[in-house]
Amino acid sequence: MRLQKNSFAAMSFAGVLVSIAGISVAQAKDADVTYKAELSPLNSKTIGSGARGEATFTISRGQLTIHVSAKGVPPNMEHLQHFHGFAKRDRTSKCPTARDDKNRDGIIDIVETEPVAGTTMVPFDDDPAGMSMVNDTFPMGGADGSYSYEKTVPLKALESAFIKKFPGQKLDLRRRVVFVHGVPASTKLPATVASLDDVPAQVVLPIACGEIKKVRDWLRSSKQR
């Protein structure tokens, strides 16, 4: 995930889904299509628990409904969440693994996710079409370390905003990944843990990731486990 350095500088961490998997807005109006990502823990030793959950994306009647449920996240704090992908070419994003910890400090930081997952694309906040990568309208983890987020947005508005930010890039959910971020500001991290610009590494530290698949593909892969 890359929270677009210029966007972060202005602050001082996924068109979506219109041509998703070859589905145009017109087609989406005529048929419901659902995608799902199973969120698995990242950097669980650092946060002291395994953040996990599920993200679903439902296209219906020209609308996209995004739903994210998570548990095991640090409580009583805001958690950035976005979908990420590659802004150039048709590369498929993957969730990072231990081998992507290139500096071997035991933590997969935001910069180390970029080679396999790409950049931040669409935020799951109060206004996904606003394309604001960092703000104070992302979901808060409750006292029990869980949260539930849901937002419905017009596909055309989201597509227009996406194309403006990522010209020429077609958005295919099956090539994207979902990240959840954030540990408390008091969390001690090695000096080797990178961030972007002047954003604290704790804010953008990835704590969960899931690869988005069409529901029938997700069910097939689940049965094969």
Architecture overview:
The chain is of the alpha+beta class. The protein has a single domain (about 5-225), classed as Immunoglobulin-like. Helix content is about 20%, strand content about 25%. It contains seven helices and nine strands. Strands 1, 2, 3, 4, 5, 6, 7, 8 and 9 form a nine-stranded antiparallel β-sheet that branches. Strand 2 and strand 3 form a beta hairpin. The protein starts with a helix and ends with a helix. About 45% of the residues are buried. The model is unreliable at about 5-30 (pLDDT under 50).
Keywords for this structure?
single chain; 225 residues; alpha+beta; Immunoglobulin-like; nine-stranded antiparallel β-sheet; 9 strands
What is this structure's SSE topology?
Elements: H1 5-11, H2 25-30, E1 33-41, H3 44-47, E2 52-60, E3 63-71, E4 81-85, H4 110-117, E5 119-123, E6 146-154, H5 155-165, E7 177-181, H6 201-204, E8 206-211, E9 213-214, H7 215-223
Antiparallel strand pairs: 1-2, 1-8, 1-9, 2-3, 3-6, 4-5, 4-7, 7-8
